[in-house]
Amino acid sequence: MPYKPIRKAVFPVAGLGTRFLPATKSVPKELLPVVDRPLIQYAVDEAREAGIEQMIFVTGRGKGAIEDYFDMAFEAEATQRERGKDLSALEGTRLAPGNAVFLRQQEPLGLGHAIWCARDIVGDEPFAILLPDEFMKGALGRGCLKQMVDAYHQVGGNLVCALEVPIAETPSYGVIDPGARNGALTEVKGLVEKPAPGTAPSNLILPGRYILQPDVMKVLETQEKGAGGEVQLTDAMASMIGEQPFHGVTFDGRRFDCGSKAGYIEANLALALGREDLGEHIRQFAIAELAAMQIMAAA
């Protein structure tokens, strides 16, 4: 059975990034680089790979630099051309007219509210959601959203990315109450946002990738505040379970939580080690640095 294609993706990028202050005092956290590309670029590239045609950015005050990033960089491009320099580093950083929509979440009322702000742009189509803080590096060159879109064409309905974590970490995430499992697909019987310690129905969390039917917008329109005093997307999705097909797609790859300092550093290190132009240098530096620290600790 053919399902409506996933052509649109929403990127909630209105957060203040307070965990990375003072760096995020003037630079949006989504523009912080992992090696030499900002987080938001990786998310957009992932969406493009999955066939997304229109990128919808839900921003906030002070986030104009994201819009500038995806525009033409006239000075940089003209200077590089005049000097005969390679422009390949800028490939993919300019979105074509009409392929990018920027709108504002005027109040920090939660992820669910941010998604609802994009309701008129999404319209009556199924759509994807990508949280750029969650850096997802797919195995075998197939990104997280591409894996989910492939699964969507099999089962339709609503899908969330599913990731196994230690059970002690579940109070920090939305958690899946699982049903039957078929390969990478797990039936979603319920969703719990940030369960109290010891109460999580599983260790399958939601790491920031979703494919949802447009009906979720109607739910969010009257959604009451939930955990943390915010409008939770998890609560809206949970209310749709049983009304429409709902599955989790186990991600084949590695996830880095770049909303935390440790996860952000891990992502930089992992990507640098995997690059031909940097890997060996960074590997030797890390070995030497660890040895130097051990010597200092023993002194």
From TrEMBL:
GO terms for molecular function: UTP:glucose-1-phosphate uridylyltransferase activity. Gene3D superfamilies: Spore Coat Polysaccharide Biosynthesis Protein SpsA, Chain A. Its EC number is 2.7.7.9. GO terms for biological process: UDP-alpha-D-glucose metabolic process. The keyword Transmembrane does not apply. It holds the Pfam family NTP_transferase. CDD domains: UGPase_prokaryotic. It is an enzyme of class 2 (transferase). It catalyses: alpha-D-glucose 1-phosphate + UTP + H(+) = UDP-alpha-D-glucose + diphosphate. The keyword Transferase applies. Belongs to the UDPGP type 2 family. PANTHER family: UTP--GLUCOSE-1-PHOSPHATE URIDYLYLTRANSFERASE. This is UTP--glucose-1-phosphate uridylyltransferase. It comes from Sphingobium vermicomposti.
